[in-house]
Specification:
21 helices, single chain, binds CIS-heme D hydroxychlorin gamma-spirolactone, alpha+beta
């Protein structure tokens, strides 16, 4: 895609950073000039890459093809092995580079880790965002949890924070993970469905696992369908620990909060975008970074002192529970920014590999039974995907020195000169480092108890927080949850499955259970299975995360024009929006010259459309702007696709800015009696309907203002 304003900025801004990790990766860049000739992998020049060596028979026909063609053999053999196993979960993703820093040393009372306490440091990071269920080639805008895996290349080694955009998980104990993943993935007999939970096996499993109820509510909420990776919170989910210089330990949860606020698509958009542009989120991240609108998050921690571990009515080591912010505040200690797209997808995004067990001194684990299992699983999976020497691959290797006695293994890249590959040794080479000099030390924890397979009482309560979450949503967010559950359960055809889930819902909210049961033909309950405790926590609704400083930057605005449009207005709006770092895309009846009002058709002023109406859809934009022009207005009103653009954008609560004659067309094509039109973006109607038309009011500022005043979820 190209936009004149967007692409101009893009070339100026791309690849501006050069941190320690980026420099390190550059040592692997292949800098062969485009004038270099073609060679084999072993460097010999190749004279023909299109014709396999064969015998030209006497009768002129192609004869036998010869296995002796070592050039063809290498080309084919090499190609045959291009694929590696895709991740068993989180197969589809995208990533970017950036940097992290802390605001001050306030966290030093809890941790000795310099990455979290030294404000003079800038730590390079890489983040991989992902969906969970779909395979590598699935669509971005599906309903799913999003992965938010962070690698911090610290001076003390790599720290991996393998997070999600939802703060809780489906299961409490890692031993259940294979069952859960089997149930969520496409069903084994026919590998259906792709990239969605709307099938019998998933709802069967979660219907029989009340501990999943809380997470299911989050996934069915708008959190499951983010507008952008840049507009999601991140959560470490598991309970980690921090250890300070005195060896004192606290329990922590990690929190990432986007500067742009938390925003979602609406479900109808998701379904359409999945077909129209399956790479929507991937391209969105790239577009923002290349246009210099670097996504940014604050980094926070929730801290529970050791003495308070058992003071809550939930277990703080249970990954199906949040620590409500009303009980445990978030301390914002730092921030991070993504400012560099990858140079090549496979070596960076596909080969990046995370391990929850990779922590640096000052950060530790807890006895969270999910985390303990994760610590075991990730390293193992990387061996399958990348081989035992996976930590030597460019994207995964640390920026600090690595010195150990691990040797050999498949694809060993390090050459360790000298005879010593063991410890102790006569030179004391590769000696352990005492904690006083930075060596990792485990927290000294007294443990006593009976070895058994068990679950403590607090781990057996599953509905309190599912109810807390649902209660905390606004009415329209609740409506979205109801619609999502109804959609998903409608896709299950086994009555035991959709009927079973109604019983879970009735433990959360009676009205919810009744409404969904009626929608999907489940047994309608006659009374609540459990009294609703009525508690709420505003921080659980994403409305709470409306941006502190609203901005139109990085928003995508479609400018709809047809022949006879007002060129001055369009030029003015593009300059205004471009200077606010929004991107504009001109859409017309054809991807070519569109004549402007009063334009001499032969000489032609006008403007070239980036796309034709059929080539892009309103779903791919945040707002639309339509200039005035008498002829243009007539064209618009009689062009079915243009009319559809306006109606669809309105249906998805997009801001619509229209001027003069175009405003009249918008009024006409919407022709909904209840629609009111605002002359000012501050009118209530704007936030209610997201529609602005304008006579005297400038539509340029209308779009800017609408997105800035009403930036909350749709
Ligand atoms: Fe996991 C990948 C997040 C529980 C086992 N997980 C993976 C990724 C993310 C998460 C973001 C993608 C990493 C990437 O981009 O490469 N996983 C989570 C969270 C969990 C969680 C937030 C709950 C707190 N995971 C979990 C459990 C297990 C795993 C309980 C196993 C016992 N996860 C894996 C894995 C994956 C993975 C199979 C697949 C690919 C990979 O690790 O590198 O090992």
């Amino acid at each position: 895609m190209s936009s004149s304003i967007g692409s101009a900025i893009r070339h100026a801004m791309s690849h501006v950073t050069d941190n320690a990790k980026v420099k390190d990766l550059k040592t692997n860049h292949v800098n062969v000039s485009s004038s270099s000739g073609l060679t084999t992998d072993y460097g010999a020049k190749v004279s023909d890459t299109d014709n396999w060596l064969s015998v030209q028979t006497d009768d002129g026909g192609p004869g036998p093809f010869l296995l002796e063609d070592h050039i063809a053999r290498e080309k084919i053999h090499r190609f045959d092995h291009e694929r590696i196993p895709e991740r068993v979960v989180h197969a589809r993703g995208t990533g970017a580079h950036g940097h992290f820093r802390v605001f001050n040393n306030s966290a030093s009372k809890w941790t000795s880790a310099p990455v979290l306490t030294d404000p003079t440091r800038t730590t390079p990071i890489f983040i991989r965002f992902s969906t969970v269920q779909g395979s590598r080639g699935s669509a971005d805008t599906v309903r799913d949890v999003r992965g938010f895996a962070m690698k911090f290349y610290t001076e003390e080694g790599n720290w991996d924070l393998v997070a999600n955009d939802i703060p809780v998980f489906f299961i409490q104990n890692a031993i259940k993970f294979p069952d859960f993943v089997h149930a969520v993935k496409p069903e084994p007999h026919n590998e259906v469905p792709q990239a969605q939970t709307a099938h019998n096996n998933f709802w069967d499993y979660v219907g029989l696992q009340p501990e999943s109820a809380h997470m299911v509510m989050w996934v069915m909420s708008d959190r499951g369908i983010p507008r952008s990776y840049r507009m999601m919170q991140g959560f470490g989910v598991n309970t980690f620990t921090l250890i300070n210089a005195e060896g004192k330990r606290v329990f922590v949860k990690f929190f990432m909060t986007p500067e742009l606020g938390v925003h979602s698509l609406v479900w109808d958009e998701c379904l359409k975008i999945a077909g129209q542009d399956p790479d929507f989120h991937r391209k969105d991240l790239q577009e923002a970074i290349e246009n210099g609108v670097y996504p940014k998050w604050t980094f926070g921690i929730q801290v529970v002192e050791e003495k308070d571990e058992h003071s809550f009515d939930f277990d703080i080591l249970d990954a199906t529970k949040v620590w409500p912010e009303s009980l445990v505040p978030v301390h914002q200690i730092g921030e991070f920014t993504l400012d560099r797209v990858v140079d090549e997808y496979f070596p960076e995004v596909e080969q990046v590999a995370f391990c929850t067990s990779h922590v640096v001194p000052g950060i530790g684990f807890s006895d969270d039974p999910l985390l303990q299992g994760r610590n075991f699983s990730y390293f193992d999976t990387q061996i399958t995907r990348l081989g035992i020497n996976w930590e030597q691959t460019p994207i995964n290797r640390p920026v600090c020195p690595v010195m150990n006695h691990n040797r050999d293994g498949s694809r060993q890249h390090r050459i360790n000169p000298g005879p010593l590959n063991y410890f102790p040794n006569r030179d004391n080479a590769g000696h352990p480092v005492p904690p006083s000099q930075g060596g990792y030390i485990e927290f000294k924890q007294k443990v006593e108890g009976i070895k058994q397979r068990t679950r403590t009482t607090k781990f057996q309560e599953h509905y309190n927080q599912a109810q807390l979450f649902y209660n905390s949503l606004s009415q329209y967010e609740k409506n979205h949850v109801i619609a999502a559950l109804s959609f998903e359960l409608s896709h299950c055809d086994d009555q035991r499955v959709y009927g079973g889930y109604i019983k879970i819902l009735n433990n959360i909210d009676f009205d919810l259970a009744v409404t969904v049961a009626k929608n999907v033909n489940g047994a309608v309950p006659d009374k609540p299975a459990r009294i609703n405790h009525g508690q709420k926590d505003p921080t659980l609704s994403q409305i709470y995360y409306a941006p502190k400083t609203p901005t139109i930057a990085s928003r995508r605005i479609a400018v709809l024009i047809t022949d006879g449009f007002n060129l001055d207005e369009v030029e003015a709006v593009r300059v205004a929006l471009g200077s606010a770092k929004a991107t504009t895309w001109v859409i017309g009846p054809r991807r070519g010259k569109i004549h402007s009002e009063g334009d001499n058709i032969v000489l032609g002023a006008g403007m070239v459309a980036d796309h034709h109406f059929e080539g892009q859809r309103s779903t791919l934009f945040d707002a639309i702007y339509i200039p005035s022009g008498a002829e243009h207005a007539k064209n618009l009103a009689t062009n079915g696709r243009a009319v559809h653009w306006i109606r669809e954008a309105f249906g998805h609560c997009k801001a619509i800015g229209a001027i003069g004659d175009a405003a009249a067309v918008v009024k006409h094509v919407l022709s909904l009696p209840e629609v009111e039109f605002a002359n000012s973006a501050t009118d209530d109607v704007v936030s209610s309907y997201g529609v602005v038309t304008s006579g005297k009011y400038s539509a340029t500022s209308a779009i800017v203002d609408v997105l800035e005043i009403a930036p909350g979820p749709k």
